[in-house]
Structures are given as C-alpha cells and as structure tokens.
C-alpha cells in the first residue's frame, strides 16, 4: 500500500485518491473547500478553480495528480516537487514565471510535494484522504505488486473512458485507498492534452498483449505439460526395479551425510555460511532511514545503499532491501553501505567503499567509519555517502 | 522437422520504470549422457524463471524429485516477475511434496539452481538461487563469473583454502552434497540479487556439464555462440563428446537486445540433435523433463503458439 505521508507545517495539504495539493498559507478557506470538492477532475480543474478570481489572487501552490507511475504537476511560488525516476531524483520548481509551471513525468517511483527547505527532521505521518496543515506530502507510486495489479485490472479502463461520470463518482467516494484501479480512472481528462497520444491508446494495447501471452502460456503449460501428473498425482515412472544402482552411484544424498560427516573433521561439518549479513535478532526497534533524496526506507530488514547495489549469498529471510542512490560523479560505490537495526541500535557499515562513509553530529567534525565494522549511529547524526547523498535515521511511529 | 524459430524463446518479462522493459531470450538442452540409463535432470525455461534440477536417488526417486521441482516452479511461468518470496515458496512446496510423495523407504532429492527476473524497490534484478551443486554462471560481456556457490564438501574445503580448483576435480568427496531439496529438512537455498545489465547472459547447468567442460570451454561457447539455443545445444553436445558420464543439462538466458517494433515470441521447444530418429518420441524418463515440454521432431507442437508482441517503448 502506498498511503501518502505528510509532515506538519504552515501550508495546507489536500490529499485525495490520486491527487495532492499543497496551498500556501494565504489560501482562503473557501478555496481549500472548493478544491477538496473539485480534485476528481485532475490538475486542469484545480487550476481553473484556483485562477477563478484572476491570476492576481493565485496563492503559491503545488498540484500533483498521479496515475499509476505518471505524475502531472503544476507549481507556483516557493514550493517544490521531488520525483524519483527509477532512483534518479528530479526536483521541479516553478522558476521565474508569473503564472505557474507544469510538467508531466512518466515512470515515477515516488513523488514528494514540499515547501522550499522543509525541516529535515519533521515527523512523517500517514494520511489517506483529507486536509491538513503540512510542509510536505510524499506519495510512493511504484510497488512491484501494484504493477501486476494494473495489468490485471486494465479491462476497467475502456469502460471508464466511455463513462467519465462513473470515474468522478468513484473518486468522490470518501477515504478510498490508493489502489491502482482508481489511479487509472484519473487518466481521462483535459489535462492529458499536454501529452497527446502517449497514454490511453498504447497502454491498453500493451496490457492486452501481455495478458494474451500469459493466458497462452498458462494454457500451454496446463494443456500439454502436466496433464498426467496433475490429473493423478502419481509418479509417471514405474516403481519396479527401484534401486540405487540405477543412479551413477556417485552423487550422495545429504540425508546420508550425518554418517559421512561423523568421519569428517569438525570444520567440514560446520553449517556457518560466510557473509556479512546476519539474521535479525529479536524484535528490532521500529526505525527508518530518511535520504537527502526524499526517499524514506523502513529498516524492518537490512538496507544496502549504493550506486548499483547487489547481494551475494544470503538466505531468504536475510535478503536486504536494495536502495539505489544517484552518483553522477561515481563517488559512491556500487554497494556502498549497509544499515540495519540490532536491538535498540542502528548500525551502519561501510562495505569497503572506495570513498568511505562519513558520520557527523551537528557542531562536530565528521568521523569516517572503519570499513567492514558496524558502527552505531545516533538519531541526531547525519551520514554522508558522497556525491551529496546523505541520510539520517528516525525512530518509527 | 523443427525450424530454427521454434527452438528459441523470447519474451518480455518485466517492466521497468519509464516504460522500458527487460526482455529475455533463452535456449535449453538436456541429455541423459552416455553412461546413465535415465535422465534424472529436469529443467524449466520460461520467464520469469529459468532453472535446472538434478535429481538424486535412482529412477523411481531422483527423476521424480527433479520433476516435482520443475512442476512447482512452473507455477511462476507467465508472471512478469517473481519476488524472492515467490521463489522461496516454490522451494518450500517442492520440499514438502518430495517428503509427502516419497513413501515406503524411497529416498530422493534434487538440486535446484536458477535465475528469476525480479523487481526490487522499483528496479529490475536477477534473483539467483541455489540448493546443491548445479550452477549459475553470468557472462557480463567481459568475463564469466560463477555466481552460485556449490553446497558440497569440496566447496567447503575450497572455502577453507584446503584445496584449489584442480584438487576439487579429483577429490574423492567431490560428489557429496551438503544441501539438497527433499532431505527432510527445511530448504535452505542461497540467494543473490544482481542488478540487471543489458549485456547479461546466464548459463544454468547441472554438474554433468561442468564435470566434462572446464570453465574456459564454457566461456568459449558463450562468447562465440550468439543464439542462446545454439549455445545450450552446443554445450551439451560438447559434454557428450567428452564422455558425458552424468546427465547433462544447460539453460542459456540472454537479455534480448532486439528493439524491433515486432518480435515473434516462441515458446521454446528445444532438443539436442542426437541419433534419435524422428519416429522415436521424447521419453521424459529417458530423455529428461523440461518445461515447456519437449516434442519429438515431426510431432505437432500443439501448445507452441506464436505471438506477435507490440514493443511499447
């Protein structure tokens, strides 16, 4: 689930399914109320509403409508929209324009709408649908599971295109979860005119193809490959004459190993698997990592950060999260650092990175972590990976 | 006869952010070898998962164990990607079925090694998995790297620095596995997550191949043979020429580089050219189990269909 998260502030955030608005402190209450009602029509309708009294009365604002991984944003004034494009962060600002700036971006992983220079340590809280005083709202768009859902639910789309009234009703319903289906419904609308021909046509075609392939593959597998086996559940080979002699006699079952191992020296019977990743111990402290890029990562399992992180030889429960961070100067190594929770501590390890991991407490000089040695990092410290990428740690709620 | 086209697979398997996608093409081959009576190997080559399974325990057990593994993992076929939890669930189901279906003192188990296309935090990755001594190699355009680490006593000796690679080939304990599926314990596969590269080529094979061919020979074939099906077939043929004392199986998986607007997608129906006549049907027990299933030449591959696929990028 991608429930939006917000941090408190002076601006007014309106969060609806598929839509986020952040209005400056000067926005009138009536404007907020009307915008709350009008969000179903997308960015275009919201702009029309904000500008109804002429451009002179425009408050600073950011409007973001979200459709699957497509983001349509309009900004004015001292506010920014930070989008995560496949690990690369792009910050949108209104610039020196007298009206507003609009952008449409595809393939967005997450989007954060925030006032300029938000307090980095403001607590972040979930908000599914509502109006709050906020300095920042963040929405994660991309989860692998959701992408699959979109594929399956795509046949909803044609109906919604023909009957836009239905889509509006669905969006007006209160407290809807941010399902992929609803975000699909936001597709039709005048706002799409900014990118003609990129959305409504190719998307259904692509999905129809995909499901066709999948269906054919399933039919193929079911029809031909497994009939006899699935039908009876019995072995397809004769049981007579069963003997180990038919085997090459060389490969040995691990079940037989107990005896063999008794005759081996003790080091060979060790079950230790080398590797830097340990299994979590006990119930860890809920904590998360907040990157300077705006990404917030829960520390419910170990996290590997790097330019192109990879994992070697771990068990299923030890599989860490992999977080790719931008490093245009390549200051950051492929797999640069590991962060994990152990007991009440958050441990940061420099995984033999080229340029190291530096940790600084406010008002003190930075210390460089010893490579390969897990070090406790406090909640008031800032960890620098290089290339301008830093992160801090937060206790979870 | 089969045409070239039906022996190769190509499929788009995972979407990436921004509408770009990872396509794979692949080929596979298996043979019971020159010594063994039965092919206890099984393989699965259909996105998003590619694997080989080397059964152990004789022909009422080893071949069945490897086929159970392929059946369970085949439930992922057709998905755009498989998560680590998806893959792990297949290991758990395979182990449970082997335990439940092997009664009356029969003992069998299987290795499983392979690679799955997975999505992790929004990026496309290869999830490499292994139990036993089948292997996963990656060719990244520059060098061949063995990704998986055998679960064998010999490997433990190598890790300890007691013996080197040459010593491993002649060591008397070289066939002793330390882990396999179906031995009564909870499965303990190892996993690797590798960022998907545009030039990646994977070789997944049973020990019947690596026993006959040195790593340099594997590399020569992978570098010189661009078509993945041709590469898989050639590797198995070379193993046969070297004596093929064990069953031999190979799956070769490529990131497809074709960016054409249309791509014919074939469900792979590979087989090794051997002395088998066209009248002789494929026998799963003798010739090995594959998913998608192998068809004898001349028979109608009713399940193999072609799809035209629009390239959406």
Would you kindly provide a brief summary of this structure?
Chain A contains nine helices and 22 strands. By secondary structure, chain A is of the alpha+beta class.
Q: What would CATH call the architecture of chain B? A: 4-Layer Sandwich
Helix proportion of chain B: 10-25%
Structure class of chain B: alpha+beta
Low-confidence spans of chain A: pLDDT under 50, at least 5 residues? 144-211, 217-249, 265-282
Strand content of chain A: 25-35%
Please indicate the count of domains of chain A: 2
Structural class by secondary-structure content of chain A: alpha+beta
Mind explaining what this structure looks like?
The complex is a heterodimer of chains A (397) and B (313). Chain A is of the alpha+beta class and 397 residues long. Chain A has helices at 29-38, 42-50, 144-152, 156-162, 164-172, 180-185, 202-225, 227-232, 257-262, and strands at residues 5-16, 19-23, 61-67, 70-76, 79-85, 88-93, 101-105, 110-115, 124-126, 130-140, 287-291, 296-298, 303-306, 311-314, 321-324, 337-342, 345-350, 358-360, 367-368, 375-376, 382-386, 389-395. The longest helix of chain A has 24 residues, at 202-225. Chain B has one domain: PPM-type phosphatase domain (Phosphatase 2c, domain 1, 4-Layer Sandwich). In chain B, helix 1 runs antiparallel to helix 2 and helix 6 (215-224) runs antiparallel to helix 7. Chains A and B meet through helix 3, helix 7, strand 14 and strand 15 of A and strand 1, helix 1, helix 2, strand 5 and helix 3 of B. Strand 14 (311-314) of chain A pairs antiparallel with strand 9 (190-195) of chain B.
């Amino acid at each position: 689930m991608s429930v939006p998260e917000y941090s408190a502030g002076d601006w007014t955030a309106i969060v609806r399914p598929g839509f986020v608005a952040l209005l400056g402190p000067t926005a009138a209450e009536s404007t907020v109320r009307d915008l709350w009602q009008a969000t179903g029509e997308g960015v275009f309708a919201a702009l029309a509403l904000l500008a109804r009294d002429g451009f002179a009365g425009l408050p600073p604002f950011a409007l973001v409508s979200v459709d699957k991984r497509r983001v349509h944003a309009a900004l004015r004034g001292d506010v920014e929209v930070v989008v995560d494009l496949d690990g690369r962060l792009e910050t949108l600002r209104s610039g020196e324009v007298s009206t507003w700036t609009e952008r449409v971006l595809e393939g967005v992983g997450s989007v954060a709408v925030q006032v300029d220079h938000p307090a980095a340590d403001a607590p972040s809280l979930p908000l599914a649908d509502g109006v709050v005083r906020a300095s920042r709202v963040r929405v994660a768009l991309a989860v692998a599971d959701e992408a699959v859902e979109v594929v399956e639910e795509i046949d909803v789309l044609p109906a919604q295109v023909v009957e836009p009234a239905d889509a509006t009703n669905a969006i007006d319903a209160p407290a809807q979860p941010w399902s992929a289906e609803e975000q699909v419904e936001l597709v039709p609308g005048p706002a799409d005119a900014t990118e003609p021909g990129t959305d409504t046509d190719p998307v259904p075609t692509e999905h129809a193809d995909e499901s066709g392939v999948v269906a054919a593959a399933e039919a193929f597998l079911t029809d031909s490959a497994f009939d006899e086996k699935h039908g009876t559940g019995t072995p397809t080979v004769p049981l007579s004459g069963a003997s180990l002699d038919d085997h090459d006699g060389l490969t040995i079952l691990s079940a037989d190993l107990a005896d063999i191992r008794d005759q081996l020296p003790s080091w060979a019977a060790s079950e230790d698997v080398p590797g830097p990743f340990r299994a979590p111990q006990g119930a860890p402290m809920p904590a998360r990592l907040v990157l300077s890029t705006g990404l917030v990562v829960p520390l419910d399992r170990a996290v590997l950060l790097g330019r192109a992180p990879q994992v070697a030889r771990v068990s299923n429960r030890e599989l860490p999260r992999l977080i790719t961070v931008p490093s245009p100067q390549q200051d950051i190594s492929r797999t640069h650092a590991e962060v994990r929770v152990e007991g009440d501590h958050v441990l940061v390890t420099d995984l033999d990175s080229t340029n190291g991991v530096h940790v600084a407490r406010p008002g003190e000089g930075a210390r460089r972590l010893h490579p390969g040695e897990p070090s406790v990092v406090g909640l008031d410290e800032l960890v620098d990976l290089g290339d301008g990428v830093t992160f801090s740690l937060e206790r979870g709620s | 006869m089969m045409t070239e086209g039906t022996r190769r697979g190509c499929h788009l398997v995972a979407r990436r952010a921004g509408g770009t996608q990872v396509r794979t093409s692949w080929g596979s081959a298996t043979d019971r070898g020159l010594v063994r009576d039965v092919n206890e190997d099984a393989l699965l080559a259909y996105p998003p998962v590619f694997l080989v399974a080397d059964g152990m325990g004789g022909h009422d057990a080893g071949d069945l164990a490897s086929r159970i593994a392929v059946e369970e993992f085949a439930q992922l076929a057709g998905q755009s990607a498989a998560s680590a939890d998806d893959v792990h669930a297949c290991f758990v189901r395979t182990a449970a079925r082997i335990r439940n279906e092997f009664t009356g003192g029969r003992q069998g188990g299987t290795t499983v090694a392979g690679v799955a296309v997975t999505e992790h935090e929004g990026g496309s990755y290869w999830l490499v998995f292994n139990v036993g001594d089948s292997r996963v190699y990656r060719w990244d355009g520059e060098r061949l790297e063995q990704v998986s680490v055998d679960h064998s006593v010999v490997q433990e000796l190598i890790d300890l620095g007691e013996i080197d690679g040459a010593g491993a080939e002649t060591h008397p304990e070289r066939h002793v596995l330390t882990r396999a599926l179906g031995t009564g314990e909870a499965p303990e596969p190892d996993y690797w997550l590798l960022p998907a590269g545009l030039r990646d080529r994977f070789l997944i094979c049973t020990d019947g191949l690596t026993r006959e061919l040195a790593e340099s020979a594997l590399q020569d074939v992978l570098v010189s043979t661009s078509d993945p099906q041709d590469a898989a077939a050639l590797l198995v043929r070379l193993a046969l020429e070297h004596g093929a004392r064990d069953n031999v199986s190979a799956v070769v998986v490529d990131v497809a580089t074709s960016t054409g607007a249309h791509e014919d997608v074939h469900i792979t129906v590979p087989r090794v050219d051997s002395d088998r006549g066209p009248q002789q049907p494929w026998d799963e027990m003798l010739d090995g189990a594959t998913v998608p299933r192998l068809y004898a030449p001349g028979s109608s591959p009713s399940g193999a269909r072609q799809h035209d696929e629009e390239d959406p990028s």
